[in-house]
């Protein structure tokens, strides 16, 4: 019975600590660079007319952001997935909408936000 006590200690105390570390793969500061965008947004034009709504949420345990756009009249919708590409050292956005358009953007944080662009 005494041989099992060390294993019980490992199972009860050590494994949960490892699990906590594994569950936080995207907890560094770079993954907070887009947090200013999170939330529900009402998008308006220059004259104040509502153009649509945009909902931004964290997904995949904070490793990505999902954007859901809907125009004010409900006919145009789009979704993007935004994530930090560790290998390339930049943020990526993949956008697809219900009219068949798609965008592949990349960029990095700037002083007051984020700048993303496509390849020329």
Any key phrases for this structure?
7-stranded antiparallel beta sheet, 120 residues, alpha+beta
Outline:
With 120 residues, the protein is of the alpha+beta class. The protein has 1 helix and 7 strands; from the N terminus they run αβββββββ. Helices cover 16% and strands 46% of the residues.
Write up what this structure looks like.
The protein has one domain (28-117). The N and C termini lie far apart (69 Å). 16% of the residues lie in helices and 46% in strands. By secondary structure, the chain is an alpha+beta fold. The chain is built from one helix and seven strands.
Helical content class? 10-25%
Assembly type of the chains comes to: single chain
List how many beta strands DSSP finds. Answer: 7
Number of helical segments with 4 or more residues: 1
| Amino-to-carboxy terminus distance | 69 Å
Q: Which residues sit in consecutive blocks of at least 5 with pLDDT less than 50?
A: none
Order of helices and strands: HEEEEEEE
Largest sheet: 7 strands, antiparallel
Strand order of the largest sheet: 1-2-3-4-5-6-7
Content-based structural category: alpha+beta
Tally of discrete structural domains: 1
Shape: globular
Task: Outline the fold blueprint.
Blueprint: H1 4-22, E1 39-44, E2 50-59, E3 64-71, E4 77-85, E5 90-97, E6 102-110, E7 113-117
Antiparallel strand pairs: 1-2, 2-3, 3-4, 4-5, 5-6, 6-7
